[in-house]
Amino acid sequence: MVRAFAVIALALALGCSSGDPAGGTGGAAGSGGLAGSGGAAGAAGAGGSSVGGFAGLGFDCGQGDPQADDRPLPKDVTAAAPNLELAATSRRIEVWTPKDSPLLDSEVIDFGQGACEALLFDLDAHDVAQPDLSTRVRIVVVDGATFDQATGAPGAYGVAFSATHSATDAVILPADGLANVVELDDTLAHELTHIVSGRAAPYDAWLPWWLIEGIAVLSGSQFGKKLHDQPTGFVVDWLDVADGSDADLTFQRYGLEDQTQNLGEVGHDQALSGFFIEYLRVKRGIADVQARLLSVMRKVSDGDDFAETFAAELGVPLAQAQADYAQFLDDTVADLAKRYAGTVFE
Asked: Are 228 and 290 contained in the same domain?
């Protein structure tokens, strides 16, 4: 059973994940406009694209021929935007917009190429080979009101929908967020991490929220740091005042069930979760922590015990790692330079 993500995002560039538990037919945005799997991406312009015979815009992204995906977009998306069409495509990514979208061709191509860079960054960070991604990732760009209707997350910069048996996974973003390139790049890396991890671990009911959101927060922070020297902005606001009790609260409240009650609690728990992954990477010296945690997610999705798999993959018992993290926060609450030293938030 695929767990439906339903975390509301903060307006402070906090990406989130949402689900389509019932599947659905997807309305006008079904498989009719789906690009096939053959051909390389052609240049934008009058010549269009040679990707799978698609006649629209094309951009270069990645390697390997993906399989065609004939499932529709999530029904929450198509119900809010029944007039979607495939605006641009590449080997790894499709960009969908409403037929009456005001976005220029050049803006669509620039966005697609930026999304490609974020996706390839995520694949590299998680040690995922491009052909393993199988089908293309669909990214939908709509106006703000349509985004709010589709996601129920007004003020968010992006939402990722998990796949169901009848609908594909997808990322949806509001078009007005494209102008803020710093937040956009962070959001793309965050939300596309959900796509990458969701495809590796589609049966994720035994995965805690601190892991699902933590690796996404860290990926967004790393990508933002790489491109703009700015990691995810809201995290440090919480971490500057966090101590061990904040870590304990996060692990309790952001476990197999998301028990957060408001945006403040979501921000707190996602910040502490993202920094826990960074703590494992930097302070415990697990340089490939994202790849190892993706392996944990995959194995647990296949039926393995979470705590046992965590210990085997990361070389430290889960309870010990969490206790050490809480102690680290207590030890550095009055020494933020030590807390952030060597991390992406330094």
From this structure: yes
What are the two backbone dihedrals, phi and then psi, of residue 58, each rounded to the nearest 5 degrees?
Answer: -130, 150
Strands of the 84-89 sheet, one edge to the other: 16-18, 159-161, 170-174, 137-142, 93-98, 84-89, 57-58
Least confident of 12-26, 186-200, 290-304: 12-26
Q: 41 near 90, Cβ under 8 Å?
A: yes
Residues 222, 204 contacting (CB under 8 angstroms):
no
pTM (2 decimals)?
Answer: 0.87
Task: Spell out the residues 6+ positions from residue 262 whose beta carbon is closer than 8 angstroms to its own.
Answer: none
- The Cα–Cα gap between 88 and 119 comes to 16
Q: Do the domain assignments include residue 2? A: no
CA 307/CA 296 separation, integer angstroms: 9
Residue-range definition of the domain harbouring residue 79: 16-200
